[in-house]
Amino acid sequence: MNVVPTFAAARDSAAGRVGLVPTMGFLHEGHLSLLEALRPQCDTLVMSLFVNPLQFGPTEDLSRYPRDLERDVTLAASAGADVVFAPDVDEMYPEPPATSVSVADLAFRLDGERRPGHFKGVATVVAKLLAGIQPDIAAFGRKDAQQLAIIRRLVADLSFPTTVVGCPIVREMDGLALSSRNTYLSGDERDAAVALSRGLMAAADAVAEGERDSRALEALALGVMASTDGVEPDYAELASQHDVSRLTELDRSAFLAVAARVGPTRLIDNVHFDWDAGAFGADRGIRLTAPSVLYTVSEEV
Questions:
Q1: Do 144 and 180 contact (CB within 8 A), yes or no?
Q2: How would you label 47-70 residue by residue, b for 16+ Cβ within 10 Å and e otherwise?
Q3: Which residues does the annotation mark as catalytic?
Q4: Which residues contact 189 (CB under 8 A, 6 or more apart)?
Q5: How far apart are CA 60 and CA 127, in angstroms?
Q6: Of 195, 209, 213, 286, whose CA–CA distance to 254 is shortest?
Q7: Model confidence at 234: pLDDT above 70
Q8: What digits encode the pLDDT tens for the residues 153-198?
Q9: Mean pLDDT over all residues of the chain?
Q10: Do 107 and 61 meet the contact criterion of CB atoms below 8 Å apart?
Q11: Contact call for residues 7 and 132 (beta carbons, < 8 A)
Q12: Which pLDDT value is given to residue 89?
């Protein structure tokens, strides 16, 4: 496997049908599942590792975001990556960018409303990765549901010749959605954080029993979070998978998104409701059967 620091080297290392998995590193099974999903569909599989400063606000956790390149390279190789693109900031942004990408409307709802500029940073870096690596297919996790909708729209609007694949959330054994930020949580905070997924699963159960009213589904998720010590709910909202517009009832493919602060750490999660063959199916994600590699040190990976 090649580890390369430049766009030119990444392109030179790729041949045939190229797949891309963009990440900010400190990998876990969610990232690895994206590699595994693309591996059968491409000849060269590229994973990018770059903590993108454009998507962090001035009070957010850029400086403390976990980083471990050696660990990530080992894990990427184990999941089938052929190339790891690990640029520094100067390669990604040789000058402060005068050009940015903003996906109107989709980026100003849910997390976009609460984190101004975040999705402009996401869209800009993804556009650069798609332009610089030129993949035929790229995979993103459904955990970042709003981000996935924005990237689909970006690719369509700017005519990138890249197929975007969305993959299920990977959850820890107790249901907590995998996130590199889970490593910030203390023991008590970690126990409390499961309230996000418990609330979502309660809503998914209600959908299976016929509930379609968005207020009822949102209230179920909010109620579980609000009743858990140490969890400060931010929102629960049912939104369209297509354009992130708020829905009053579940009448199309949608996702129920939640956000909450657990201690000083802000977490997000969601459950997707996919309309298929005249019925809604809830994508509850995939649960691990053993502790996540998030909690192993580099020497043990």
A1: no
A2: bbbbbbebbbeeeeeeeebeebee
A3: 31
A4: 230, 262, 263, 265
A5: 23
A6: 213
A7: yes
A8: 999 999 999 999 999 999 999 999 999 999 999 999 999 999 999 9
A9: 96
A10: no
A11: yes
A12: 97
From residue 87, how far is each of 24, 27, 38, 106 by CA, in Å? 11, 16, 22, 28
The CA distance from 241 to 144, in Å, is: 11
Provide the 3-class DSSP secondary structure of residue 74: helix
Per-residue confidence (pLDDT) for residue 60, from 0 to 100? 86
pLDDT band, very low/low/confident/very high, at 297 (cuts 50, 70, 90): low
Tokens of 69: 């390149």
Rounded to two decimals, the pTM is 0.95
Handedness of CA 130, 112, 148, 244 (dihedral sign): negative
Q: Region 274-291: what's the mean pLDDT? A: 93
pLDDT at 296: 77
CB neighbour list of residue 117: distance below 8 Å, 6 or more residues apart: 54, 55, 57
Radius of gyration of the chain (CA): 19
Backbone angles phi, psi at 163, to 5 degrees: -85, 130
